[in-house]
Protein 1
Amino acid sequence: MRRSGQQHNRRIVVTGIGLVTPLGLNAKETFRGVVEGRSGLVPLHKAPFFLPGYIADDKRIPTASKASMLQQLVAAMPGRVVGAVIEDTEYDYYYDMESKDSVGKRRRLQFAPTPHEPRGFRFCARAVEEALQDALLLHPSAVAASPGSALIGIDDPTRVGVNIGMGIPSLSDVTDVAAHLTHSLVSASSSAAGQQQPHPADASTSSRVHYSKINPFFVPKILGNMAAGVTAIKYNCQGFISSSVAACATGAHCIGESFLVMREGDAASRSGDAAAFAQFLQQQRRGDATSTTPATTTPEKAGVVDVMICGATEACITPVSVGGFSRMRALSTRRNDPTAADGGEGPATASRPFDVSRDGFVMSEGAGILILEEYAHAHRRIQSYMDAAPAAARALFDGKTPEDFMYGEVKGFGVSSDAHHVAAPHPDGRGAETCLRACLRSAGLLQDPQHPSALYVKGDGGGAAGEGAFSRFRVGYVNAHATGTIGDEIEMGAIRRVLGSSPQGEGGAGGGRVVVSSTKGSLGHLLGAAGSVEAAVALLAMKENVAPPTANLKDPCLSAESQRDDNILLNAEATALSPETCDGVISTSFGFGGINTALLFSRIGSTSSAQPGDGKETN
């Protein structure tokens, strides 16, 4: 039987963040951009990778012809605005090319065993590297570490896991292979009919239609789990590995699944049977003179892993995907004019979450990676890192504790299904509301039946209130999924019902107002990576005590009930947060197929249940 008090005593914290977005190639630039309300959206013709690779790489096609083809493709799309990642040549992550590091040495960047990696792999590599460095798990000079390189402070690689997903695999590789084969087939047929060949330089027709036209690494390049696989290979992560796929909730789902795996662990660890069995063996062997087994047996560590590299990456701005979403009438189409003045109706203003003038989402790309770590493990590891720092770097850690290097604690994860439609949310928002409430329950937060929006958390005996006392828990910020579509108002209704003011007028979510914003106004919709990027933004908002605005919000599309709810603030400007009114933040992510997810992060110490060395952790 599971022992009481053993179920959720592992605290999971976030020790590293890595981001690649249209606003920047790191977390700092991205967060600064969203707080300032800047736009990372550009006209589609400024995304040169939109031209299919089989055309762009064909040296027989003149440059002018390629430019003309790109213009034709762009003109054929109803929605001609995207959130494109511009890869800085100073930090080139095309792995088959050489680049210079900060001291001018030539080096070759390699990550996966395949040439010409998909853009999504490159985004993932950069975000993972930044997150590991941010978590003090990877030395800043270890950029070009070889596959299988050890992480700092990790003695057992089986205790490190990876969960990185993709909403949509590399469509550009799929279309390139299909185009090569079909073009060869057409060329061969034209030759047989005596027609002129598109490319006279081609060799005999017998060699054109053949499977050898396919890159040997084509299959690995399009597998949804390969970003996780190559990450595990590079950093020698031998523990739990997964690649959750949940459409536009993929990134959030990867984080949530990682959290559950780390918190729950295995049955023997949860129940305490592993430690008890180790003691049993010791007692047995003390009386066995012939035993060669050491008298001290290390108890099995709690949980499955101590560290998880998790999140998602996405890079599917291609003619196929843009055309497909256009056919669904999901993309914004009213603000394509690149000549429109700033602040008017140009591409920079195309993404308008929560605004009455919204007309669809803007497709974007990038990656978001979090490092999740068991609290006691992180505390010991970071303290050891600080103690071992050379004298020249010691000043960086003066006056700091390991908690200063933690962004927050993962407290809850909720999932639900609309069970309604493949692409549209339930009109009542029942799925969004269900997943929000599930997230609160997962975090151990309790609701007053007469005032459902007032949240409480049970004390652990460490504070003045004592064991069993209850205190208010204030959700100060929600980074909403809102994409600039019909679902925005539906989502706001769900947020209001769960976190808004109660009918009696008592302040919701613990007594303080809840700031709500969607950073898709600045970033666009990163599809599968949206959830992990926005979870990172929510954590940074809590850490820096500032909630980013909803860019391009001028006329909110709120229902009458939401407009009357003084506890919900839909912000169009950056809004200050405070530890006194914000104990935690929530990030919501929804996806096609009706999947809804919500993640809750709290400040370190807001709901502490264990401290380093108090005996509650068994690892």
Protein 2
Amino acid sequence: MMHSNGSALAVAQRLNSKPAVGFLLLDSSLHPIAFNVEAIRVLSYPDRLATVRPADGFLAERIRETLLDPEPSRESPLVTEFRSGRRRYLCRAFRVDSDTKSPSHASIAVLLERAPVSVIPLSPVSEQFNLTRRERDALKHLL
């Protein structure tokens, strides 16, 4: 694809300037059904992608270690934010119901998005004051 004011490479670089979003589709047991490369990249950091094999087993383990909330809400068993290296990510989960109407067959679609840099890091504050999930969410919206 060529653009009137630049090469195809320049257009591709502009399109890729926005950070990629990781995507996971999980079954009701939180095992990965489908995922993209960015999800593996985020959850495998600092390891290289080439060393992560098989991806299904690795992702299932990292989901349990990184994304599973120790204080799950009724809406989602996953955390709303987490760290990968120095970066902070938002974890947005969406329940995907199947045609069978059975809760055991429901899936969860998960987006892993890089969070904007905040002025005050919330994680140390919430740890220092032992904030509940609701208090962390309220603080996040206030800042």
Protein 3
Amino acid sequence: MPSSSAFTLSVSARRILASRRWLVRRERGARSIMAIRIRARRQTPVDLGPVAGENGRTMKTRRTFLRTLAGAGAVATLPCLTNDALARVSAARARLADPDDPEKVARDERYWRDIQSAFSIDRNLVNLNNGGVSPSPRSVQRAMQRYLDHSQAAPSYTMWRHLEPRRETVRTRLAKHFGCDREEIAITRNASEAMETLIFGLDLKPGDHVLACDHNYPRMLNTWRQRARRDGIVLETFDVATNPDRPSDLVAAVEKRIRKNTKVIEVVHVANRNGQIWPVRDICRLGRARGITVLVDGAHAFAHFPFRRDDLECDFYGTSLHKWLLAPHGTGFLYVKKERIKEIWPLMAATEAQDEDIRKFEEIGTHPAANALAVGEALTFHEGIGVANKAARLRYLNRYWIARLDKDPRVTIRTNDEPAQSCGLRLLHIEGVKPGDLHSHLLKNHGIITSSIGGETVSGNRISPNVYTTLEELDRFVHAVRAFLA
């Protein structure tokens, strides 16, 4: 019988051999991809038409599109070029008759069929709660699995030495999309972590006044309430019209409640209850003129419709990436204007040397690298569609089902349809129907997932389709609601 030390050596040897085989396969794969690309260069270039880029802008050729897919970190994203999900996006874009007209693209069902086929979702269910969390396309799922597999080879080395540094590529790309410096973006696990970092990180003293709307996300309101209990700050919440006629009404509602001791205003970019887009820039200007810090909760906004940091004029912004960007679950980012980083304490302790470093907000202990790195593939998929096309499609899908239900006098849509005030979320209210009852009926009897919104002033079922949602699924939803009301 072999000794225990011999057995241990044998296991180690087998692991080394397995690792070498993996490296050989990886090298061969890389050579194969390079050979394909070299052969492609030798062929006569074919113009496949404009390809959607960041924020709806266009790139003129497939070669330009592939360069965008590679991004700043070619090593991290190169394997994705062979992925069927991204290939579908590229090929579908090339077939568009008028790729520079988002309204026409929104109605091109052949194009969206290709996008829909990039997902591995269960079509026996209809997920109309994408405002909560969305599935990722297969390209993102596979990227995450690759990173997980690599990290497991020797975690203290492969995860920390190989993978963790690649977060910088993702940071750069997120900053490019948001329109800020890469040294102003911290990668977080969600919008809640980003916003709680800000709420708990601000230096406030007893008696300081904080303004927040009742339509803000409940977790953020609870965070403020805890600060009020612990630190003696004064939290004032207020209600507003569910779907105001003018965005200026929301600004006025904030302005009239400002006091001499108001130190912070927390505002949502998109209200989670009904999808109302708030006039963030005007509120940020209002706060800046009064010396008041404005925190923006953008959980539902990033990669949802076109905007950049300069459109908002904000100093602080937190968002999730697992909603409209279709990134892995448990991803988000925190933006802090560079000169204000020092003002905010991190949620978990960091060294004094990091006071002005955005990465102090990422000091959370051991964490998987795969989630953050696969955000790169989600950005690539998003770029392939184009945010202007995505926004137009989301509005088209909502108008599609609304047009088939709002003839019933009991039905009210408690979301303003103006493009400046809404995009992918709508609140369906039915007179005499409890939102929870409709939610349960749709899920139990029809496999349709919605979000039940309850409250004294805002109640209904939030409906939020996404780019993978089909018209047939919306027909199924309409039929189920009609049957419920019959």
Protein 4
Amino acid sequence: MKKLFLIVTLFSFNKAQSQISNAQQLIRLHNMSNTANLNAMNNLASGHLAYNVNDKKVYKYDGTNWLPVGSLIDKDKDTYVLVDNGSDNDLVNFTIQNINSFAMRPSRLEFLNTNGSVSIGEQASLANTSNQELNVFVGFKSGTINSTGYRNTGVGTRSLRSNTSGTRNTAVGNKSLVLNTSGSENAALGNYALYSNTNGYENSAIGSSSLGNVTTGYKNSGIGSLSLEEVTSGDRNTGLGNGTLFSVTTGNNNVGVGNRADIGGNYNNRVRIGNYDIQYGSMQIAWSVSSDSTWKRDIKPLKYGLDLIKNLEVFDYIRKTDDKTEELGREIGFIAQKLIKNLNEIGYKDQGFVRNENGTYSVRYNDFIPLAIKGIQQQQSMIDELKEENLRLREILLNFENRLQELEAKK
């Protein structure tokens, strides 16, 4: 009975198999040496499988084309994702519009273009051309219309968005170098840094809105938020500190160091260290202090000198603002409160010292150089008068001696 059942089962299976025609086979395996041989086959139904010996891939026939198994593919078959390439090298390959664009390998993402450029972000490097070499654009619309510019780096939303032919620019931050078109070799780090630059070159901006309004200026360097913010066409300016050189737009070759240090207009070749709140400074060499009459008003001769100097009290002391001052030694100078008292005694106020918002005083020691000169001049006048008087007295004494000798001779 068991043998009879087995015979009937085998007969039924063979009968069912024989009813499947070649045109309607569910699965059929082919072993081909290349893809051309696959394409040469015809009258195939969708679903046929073939193994390509050369590239070691399995292909599936969809009724029109042979497609690699293990891939995602779009409707027109020109964009697809392929896992591995048959060599067990742990690869995920991305082909877009029949261009092998990038691949994922262990610990890295490779961009497979021929010009070495990288674009990440919506509409980043949207106008990409073969002329773009070694560009890196990361962020929404970063380098979006760049056409022939090369060796640029833009990181941040709209960084280098308008760049077309500028080269060797570096922009890091939201809208940094956003309007640059042909300017080259600029460096912008910070939101809106070098925002308005169009074709200025070799500018360096570090800080939010640093050099934000420069358009055609070149070789400017701004470090600090809002540093050199108003410069438009000025060149070779250097600002170090928040808001430095804020009044300069077209001035050239100026230097500002310190918070809102400014030269007060569009001048050239000027240096300003610190703002008007600075009350202490030191330098290895002597400074040249402005003394032009155009900087002064209510000019009048100094009426006092020696009479004040002889009453000044000079002290030596240890400064309390630094724990290490004892290591540097004692200082010599005035006590501001006593100096003010001396000035008030002769009817002068607000001279030789500065009082800050905290109520503490600082002495302008340079003011005492002219005072000392005035005192020396007054003293010299006194010396000259004494010399003249001494000569007169010596002449009188000599006359007395001569007369005395004459009287002695007559005896």
